[in-house]
Design brief:
This protein is of the alpha/beta class and 723 residues long. Strand 4, helix 11 (260-265) and strand 5 (281-286) form a beta-alpha-beta unit.
């Protein structure tokens, strides 16, 4: 029997029995029976066996399954020591879904697909040895973090570490176009190249002139952004890693761009096929001024990027529209259109109801909180990456006449339940930062020089979290209550503190800081004001939360002052350190809930290709925790926003915040529905978007709608940029 010819297996049927109540109870024992059957019937007979560890590695190297160089950095007796430690930790998957996901998507298989060539311990060992880069202590520390599932590298890193045939270790990319044909052509080429490498691609189109703007002073010549969007969608469809995965991209446009209505209309189900976008994601950047105009029910002006760039001497994205709005309105040299702001707000809500798009980037909020010299102009495929960029220009020879800075995303995640049980929280985080640093140091995307340059100058990483709802339920906290907000704030304050401390240590070791550190809010110390000025106290206050952090070091103001002085003296290696990604399928392997948002169902039904439905009970689900596991679709989204806002105060980048809505809203969930229709409306989404904005949320990812016929709209199908 091989993996291609599995017969008489029972684990799928056993797993499906979880969804059939027995005496009014969920038969959770069926999940354990399915897990045992899967390991017995699928994994054990189809895993290639080796007499010794040395024989295994020799086979994998000789047959070009893994690289030899990283392994040769270690004496083999150390590799054996590391394996002995990992085996002694007695790791076991806790659910059928965890084991199934690992072996289906992450385990190394033979070239013919007949056999597994590694188990979970092997993949952890490969990651630890690869990311430690010959440092034996770091390799052991990484092995310890990963086998106890305190740390989870992003999918591209976890999957590719050590393999001979692999994609890049980074998760996704951000690029931008300026307003000329050479740069547009270079942007399309970059999209092709990056999609080929693997990972999602975010592209900012706000700088492109609108439809009808002049080309070489010929009125009405430009075609606008929609044809470029079509070219990009076709590029991602074509460049799909030899058919292994669908290329994935998102395009961003300013809400004040004159093509904004056409931009949104291209995603509608009834759009003309010539302009309709089927697979490309949409995001919009929204300055404060738009919220002001909507609030006051005023007209809004949409400005010609071509004219704005001529007047201000810089691309449209780099002009602060909120600050310059009145001047731009009064400037007769800038062509403009006008419409009612609330009409556009309604169009955004309609499209979110229909498709889940567009993502919302509160661009002024992001830039106000940005401690780095420069301007954030866009985000990525999952809306959590928020870093400064500078534009590039390309000459007629397709050479860079100005080399800008673009972005590659390098991500990893803490498992909140397990990290809270770490014997040394700070050391755990430092180990994770060093693993992520290896990825950024060894990433060299030379096919897109602006990304290569940005990475080499900035050394950015993005450490995030998963399993927040698991932790709440396990510790009897209702999602969004005061204790849960207090815990979230303290946890992310600790992540911030320890990532800063680790980055400072690396800067001291290497005598190197990120580009323009001296112009950052870290260098002048103002970044630390929120921890030192007395206006906010992030230490635990309630007895409940104090108890949860008992035995865990929580920095005092004196500790923050000492860290501030150390950073002002010796710098930081990483320009950016934290970001919370959606945590897709890999959260299952960690047997935890995804990201920071609530669960969807106590027993989640997941559609798997060629298999059908697989059922996944919420982690730690029991009679004891069940009252604390309320579906996201039955949760007031203001509670979700409150939780994310508690974390956002400490996260230097963004978070993939998803809104979960029912097409028929449960009675009593939102007070503004009283006396009105119980159907979800654009007004509901507008209220929630404005609430998020006022709470300091930098970005809103998808809007997922559960319809009355049990379908989901806007569910994220992209695996490219998720952890």
């Amino acid at each position: 029997m091989s993996l291609k010819d599995l017969t008489d297996v029972t684990y799928y049927d056993l797993n499906n029995e979880i969804n059939i109540p027995v005496n009014g109870q969920i038969p959770l024992n069926k999940d354990q029976e399915a897990l045992d059957a899967f390991l017995t019937q699928n994994v054990k007979p189809n895993t290639k066996q080796f007499e010794t560890l040395r024989a295994r590695f020799d086979y994998l190297i000789d047959n070009d399954y893994i690289e030899a160089d990283f392994l040769n950095q270690y004496p083999f007796d150390f590799v054996e020591q590391l394996y002995a430690y990992l085996k002694s930790q007695n790791f076991h998957f806790k659910s059928f879904m965890a084991a199934y996901k690992f072996y289906a998507q992450y385990a190394l298989k033979s070239n013919d697909g007949d056999l597994y060539l590694e188990n979970y311990i092997d993949r952890v060992a490969m990651n630890a040895l690869y990311f430690a880069d010959g440092d034996q202590k770091l390799a052991m520390d990484l092995a310890d973090e990963m086998i106890h599932q305190r740390y989870q590298p992003a999918t591209p890193s976890f999957l590719s570490a050590g393999r001979k045939q692999r994609g890049e270790l980074v998760s996704c990319f951000l690029i931008q176009s300026t307003d000329d044909m050479n740069t547009i052509g270079r942007t399309i080429n970059s999209a092709l190249q990056l999609s080929r490498i693997g990972g999602g691609v975010g592209i900012n189109l706000s700088n492109l002139r609108g439809a009808g703007d002049p080309i070489k002073h010929v009125e009405g010549a430009a075609s606008g952004v929609v044809p470029v969007m079509k070219l990009l969608e076709d590029s991602f469809s074509y460049s799909n890693q030899l058919g292994q995965r669908q290329g994935a991209g998102v395009v961003y446009l300013s809400v004040f761009h004159p093509d904004i209505v056409a931009f949104l209309s291209a995603k509608k189900e009834n759009a003309d096929e010539k302009i309709r976008l089927k697979t490309l994601s949409l995001g919009i950047t929204v300055p404060d001024k738009f919220y002001d105009l909507v609030r006051d029910n005023e007209e809004m002006y949409l400005f010609s990027p071509y004219d704005v760039e001529r007047e201000y001497g810089k691309p449209f994205s780099y002009v602060d529209i909120t600050e310059e709005y009145d001047n731009m309105v009064a400037n007769k040299n800038i062509r403009k259109k006008k419409m009612m702001a609330r009409e556009l707000e309604t169009e955004i809500g309609k499209l979110q109801q229909e498709s889940g798009y567009p993502y919302i980037i509160n661009i002024d909020t992001a830039n106000r909180a940005n401690p780095i010299d420069g301007r954030i102009v866009m985000s990525n495929l999952c809306s959590e990456i928020l870093q400064v960029q500078t534009p590039s220009t390309v000459n007629n020879k397709q050479e860079y006449s100005t080399m800008g800075r673009d972005i590659s995303c390098n991500l990893g995640s803490t498992n909140i339940v397990n990290l809270m049980a770490s014997p040394d929280f700070g050391h755990s985080v430092e180990t994770m930062v060093r693993a992520l640093t290896f990825v950024t140091d060894h990433s060299d995307i030379d096919v897109v020089p602006s990304i290569q340059r940005g990475n080499h100058l900035s050394h950015t990483i993005g450490l995030g979290a998963m399993g927040l709802h698991s932790y709440f339920a396990k510790n009897h906290m209702n999602y969004g209550d005061e204790d849960s907000l207090e815990f979230t704030s303290t946890y992310f304050m600790l992540l911030n503190y320890w990532t800063l401390k680790a980055s400072n240590e690396i800067a001291k070791e290497r005598h190197e800081s990120f580009y323009k550190f001296d112009k950052s809010a870290y260098a002048d110390g103002t970044y630390f004001d929120q921890y030192l000025d007395g206006s906010q106290d992030f230490e635990p206050k309630s007895d409940k939360v104090k108890g949860l952090f008992e035995g865990i070091f929580v920095p005092s103001k004196a500790d923050w002052e000492a860290l501030k002085q150390a950073i002002m003296t010796d710098g930081l290696y990483h320009q950016n350190r934290m970001a919370v990604a959606p945590n897709g399928s890999i959260s299952y392997i960690n047997d935890t809930t995804a990201s920071l948002h609530p669960i969807i169902n106590r027993v989640e039904e997941r559609q798997e290709k060629k298999i059908g439905n697989i059922y996944y009970p919420a982690p730690y689900l029991s009679n004891d925790t069940m009252p604390y596991y309320k579906s996201a679709y039955d949760t007031d989204m203001r509670k979700v926003i409150d939780v994310y806002a508690a974390a956002q105060k400490h996260v230097d980048q963004g978070m993939s915040l998803t809104l979960f809505m029912r097409s028929t809203i449960p009675a009593g969930l939102y007070e503004w529905k009283d006396g009105r229709t119980d159907k979800m409306t654009t007004r509901d989404l507008s209220i929630l978007r404005n609430y998020a904005y006022k709470k300091g949320i930098k970005s809103i990812y998808y809007v997922r709608t559960f319809t009355d016929d049990d379908n989901e709209i806007g569910a994220n199908q992209c695996e490219s940029c998720v952890i």
